[in-house]
């Protein structure tokens, strides 16, 4: 049984809003969401899912509406939980990609995020085409799962790039091919 999953990173967020869950898209991020609608217009989509974070939902909503679908939100699709405000962000992220089980107290490791996402994927029907509105670290954890050793490279690529996507083909619940949009 074949399943196709498109992971879409949210559009450009309004970083003046510091609440991670309610941070909206900028006007440019909203434009990116509209552009994604045209990219996926001719695709036959089974269902659309998203992280409950506003920027992820707002990114895939135009696409869902274009297909007459609603956006189903899941806490399993949230971005990695940080241990709070990290002043040494670059060093923290480097350490997490060197040790996929590392997280400071109150935060999540890359493996934890990956396991959460994989548990979500196991709940999807075995066939169909699915859209997932997501986040950079979470998407990179799936790249790491599909192509061990490539997650950090993809994470670095995503820095400053929004509304990017990749396609994961699965056969009987196993990744068989990954197409990165770069």
UniProtKB/TrEMBL annotation:
Coiled-coil region(s): none
One Pfam family from the record: His_Phos_1
Single GO molecular function: phosphatase activity
Database matches in CDD domains: HP_PGM_like
InterPro entries: His_Pase_superF_clade-1 (IPR013078), His_PPase_superfam (IPR029033), PGM_Phosphatase (IPR050275)
A Gene Ontology term for the protein's cellular component: cytoplasm
Protein name as it appears in the record: Phosphoglycerate mutase family protein
The organism of origin for this protein: Schleiferilactobacillus perolens DSM 12744
Lineage: Bacteria, Bacillati, Bacillota, Bacilli, Lactobacillales
